Amino acid sequence: MTITTKLITVVGATGRQGSSVVSSLLQNPNFRVRAITRTPSSPKARHLASLGAEVVKADGFNTEELSLAFAGSWGAFVNTNSEDPELLAKGLNDEDLGRNIISTAAACGVQHLVYSSGLPVFELSNGAISIPGLDLKSKVYTHATTLPFRTTTPIIAGWFMENLLEREYADLFGGFPLIPDEEGYLTYKTPLWGGKEDFPWISITDDFGDLVHGVFLNPGRWNRRVVQGVGQVSGSEGVSKVFGEVTGKKTRYIPLLDPQDMNTQGEFWREQERDVFVFAQSRDGEYFCNGPTEVETAGELKRAAVRAKGGEGREELMTVREFMEREFGGKL
User: Fold this and answer.
1) Which ranges in 192-295 belong to alpha helices (H)?
2) Among 97, 206, 307, 323, which residue has the fewest nearby CB atoms (within 10 Å)?
3) In CATH, what number is assigned to the domain containing residue 124?
4) Which of 63, 66, 91 is nearest to 12 (CA)?
5) Which portions of the chain are predicted below pLDDT 70?
């Protein structure tokens, strides 16, 4: 008996989210994966090809290239980089890019779309808060719901555990967990999140791809359902404590009572991160705006994906402690 595999095209395939999605889907014999990139010769693109992905060149503003990329696709995962310097150079923004990609996918007959979305912060705050990196993605998803897809699913990622590995993020948050302060402490300085301090964490590398995979296994179930991309809920004070336990380093947590005290240095990306806290506080910590932050949905999707991969991999979501043990244990 011939088994017909379904082709899923991944836009943003060499990025952190996209590569996680490609890696997960390729482990399911019922899916074929087409990885879209502007530079097929890059090391990241060649790595995806070595895993079994069909790597195709396409620019997000080139409709002809996109049409070839989406041809024959049953599903598509789309993620765009709102901070892409090429957008600014062209006088365009993430909404322009996302709308063109999504519209082309629909025109090519893609049935099921999973979109890495954002929240309509400006709308929900009645204009009090604007976070373009989230607002523009929300507008793209709204546009997607007007197109002839059979299903559209927005997934909104929580805070990347991988950010803990970036010096720029450490500098934004007082130096934690990479840069000791003048007293020798790895000091974690963050504004309060609001409510019960249910801060959402996710390991993009370990879990995000499986969540998207889980949606594609039953897209009708998740049609127009906001998926919280969360692997663990843990307040900042607890994260600081766990890091100290894992590494034996001197750590401390200092809450910033005013988000304006964050070390933004007048840089746009830092100001957006600050405003994420401002928005979360306005919602009493319910950042995703569809109820309390939770991991049950992600857990369900993760388990479904692991089963579809023949039981390969762990069914449990990565915890902050486990991530730190792997990335920092014995290293510092």
Assistant:
1) 209-217, 236-247, 268-282
2) 307
3) 3.40.50.720
4) 66
5) 1-3, 330-332
